[in-house]
Amino acid sequence: MGAAAFRLEALVHGLLEQGADVTVLTTRLPSGSPVFTPPYKLKRWPVLRDAGGYVRGYVQYLSFDIPAFFRLLATSADVVVSEPPPTTGVVVALSSLLRRRPFVYYAADIWSEALAAMDVLPIVKKSLAVVEGFVLRSAVQVIAVSEPVAEQVAKFNVPLERISVVSNGVNTSIFKAQGPSPLAEKPYLIYTGTMSEWQGAEIFIQALPYVHEKFPDVEIRFFGQGTDEAHLEATALRLAPGSVHFGGVVPPDQAAAWIRGAVGALVSIKPGQGYDFAKPTKIYAAAGCGTPVVFSGQGAGAQIVEEGNLGIACDYDPRAVAESLIELLSTPATAADQQYRIKWVVENASLEAAGKQAAKVVLGAAS
């Protein structure tokens, strides 16, 4: 569960509404998962997962990508749509070349830019940039989730007329103010979604001891997964033992319930890592539930929070974050504030509208 799953689901629904015949090639679910029967063709394939059950890491990606190459060769289609990782993009690009059909790349982010925040060899970064550039230039259309992402795509010498911007959004029928919320014993702040190095969510744990000087009972609850999760757990054990909880990946309705009950939602992008253009979907999810956001960092995410009046944007610094959290905790949101945020998301970040717009781009590429 995550932004990509919601985004692709919205795209599929947008295509179906406009009369398309859709087939989804995806993975076999882990054992014990609930049965999902969609109103479209769904073809699953077994895949390697890590110890936590996630398809995360290049070996796991390739366990899907290599069979997907042959599955795509055997699948008839007018157009194929691929999301990252770029390894999947390569598979789609090569199979599309052999089948002589167009493909659309849904650029939710730029992976070679994300590597700037990670401690990897320069040759790895360069190689991924080469692979990603090949995929982006081979696509008949690239759908970028924001203007900054579109600018990053253009740097790979992709013609501007082949780049379409379709803003990200959230499912407002799930992330809404109406619904249950947990009966937590203590007030809490919430972080949902991916936990990667470039997001730097540790900043909130580092700020928590300062917050405890005025609000000693406040906790932070993390829901999701990512490559930085173990580091976050170690940081929490060192700086705020017993005050930071990790709940793993939960279904969207459960995530929405926890967001509704939170004093504030936490979002961060570590600055200077080449990822300041990102617009985290967790901003929209929180605001859709009426919950104020504290954004630590700079760039597009901070701009959304500030210009949309969705919460507080602050520097990526523990003291600055602590001051913002104390400000939030000292001035509880009013019903009017909550309704404003909900209305803003409906008007500016509806996933249904994004899916319909993306579907038009895909159908245009197929004609």
Mean pLDDT: 91
Distance between the amino and carboxyl termini = 32 Å
Individual helix count: 14
Q: Strand order of the main beta sheet, please?
A: 9-8-7-10-11-12
Low-confidence stretches: none
- Work out the number of β strands: 12
* Sheet having the most strands: 6 strands, parallel
Shape: globular
> Radius of gyration from the CA trace?
21 Å
Structural class of the secondary structure composition?
alpha/beta
Strand content: 5-15%
Q: What helical percentage do the residues reach?
A: 40-55%
Q: Could you explain how this protein is built, in words?
A:
This protein has 367 residues and is α/β, with parallel strands linked by helices. 45% of the residues lie in helices and 14% in strands. The protein contains 14 helices and twelve strands. Strands 9-8-7-10-11-12 form a six-stranded parallel beta sheet, sandwiched between helices. The chain has a four-stranded parallel beta sheet with strand order 3-4-5-6, sandwiched between helices. Strands 1-2 form a two-stranded parallel ribbon. Strand 8, helix 8 and strand 9 form a beta-alpha-beta unit. Helix 1 packs across helix 14 and helix 3 runs parallel beside helix 5. It is globular. The model has no long low-confidence stretch (mean pLDDT 91).
